[in-house]
UniProtKB/TrEMBL annotation:
Gene3D superfamilies named in the record: 23S rRNA-intervening sequence
Designated name of the protein: Four helix bundle protein
Family matches, as InterPro entries: 23S_rRNA-intervening_sequence, 23S_rRNA_IVS_sf
Domain of life assignment: Bacteria
Membrane spanning residue stretches: none
The organism of origin for this protein: Emticicia aquatilis
Length: 127
């Protein structure tokens, strides 16, 4: 592949990022603009940003590390959605819909990480 934009994992995570952005714009109150809204936007953007940065790294091991950070941001995004649910900014159906999207992203990220691990050269594992 020539670009991270061709990766299926990137495409699915990008879709999640756009869904999160729309949800925040339409459902979160203005008083959360610099609190929860900002945190969830940043964590969802971090998912795709880490995939992109990892793709640009020379070693598979570095790419894997950035994908692990993306996975961390994915879980952080879920936590922010749970807070939004607890604060009654979103309902259980919206939380469930987002959780399904997040689970899909997580599975693809794990698959991508495993694929990268299988491509690693033995010498690279030590670096």
């Amino acid at each position: 592949m020539k670009s991270f934009t061709e990766l299926e994992v990137y495409k699915v995570c990008r879709n999640l990022r756009k869904l999160i952005s729309d949800l925040v714009k339409n459902r979160f109150p203005d008083n959360e603009k610099y609190k929860l809204s900002d945190q969830i936007i940043r964590s969802s953007r971090s998912i795709t940003a880490n995939i992109a940065e990892g793709f640009g790294r020379y070693y598979y091991k570095e790419n894997i590390q950035f994908c692990r950070m993306a996975r961390g941001s994915l879980n952080e995004t879920l936590e922010h959605l749970i807070v939004a649910f607890d604060e009654k900014y979103i309902d259980d159906q919206e939380l469930l819909k987002m959780k399904i999207e997040i689970d899909s992203c997580g599975k693809l990220l794990n698959g991508y990480i495993n694929s990268l691990k299988s491509l690693q050269k033995p010498k690279e594992e030590d670096q």
